[in-house]
Design brief:
This protein has 199 residues and is mainly beta. It contains one helix and ten strands; from the N terminus they run αββββββββββ.
Length: 199
Amino acid sequence: MHFHYIIPFLSILIPTVTSSPIEARTCPSTNIITDGGFESGVTPPTSGGNFWTVVKFLGSSTYSLTSPGSTNFGGRYAFTAALNADLNSDRSGEALIQRMRTCAGTNYSIAADFRFSESQNNACSISVRYPFKNTIGSVTTGSGTPGISPGVWYQTGSTFQAVSSADTLSFVFSCDGSGVRNRISLDNVVVKPYAGNAF
């Protein structure tokens, strides 16, 4: 079960992304995400990543590849954001991004597995952010969402229509509140062409 709500500091976490020029090429018919299961074993850097990059930390947030991966056909690894507000902030967060090889005008579906380590009275969330016309769309799931239990893997997702040849997919991990901690894991990220209506 997923719900939408606004987190005021998401704009702080996500950098401004400009679209790249559209280039003529054959559009892939399969998953366009690289290392969506994190099975390369390569921990994403904080800049210049070939696949994933981790950006915009708030609080004393860290991250790592953890094992095992999702129980929903996951492999050895998952990406895990360890969120912890520090003395100077009552918020913690970070964002995991990948620049995709999209084809403008093509509809895509997004699917990804996630898991919270704590419920934290809905103080923490994972948000999937993607292009939506001339702005950004998002689907957010809170740690206290009815039906969501700590330590259990679930799936989130959405659909979108690409606006450029290099659209960005972002996963924002966040907690709000002094002393709030959580470990939010991500695995099995898949983005592929979608035959239905993306809006």
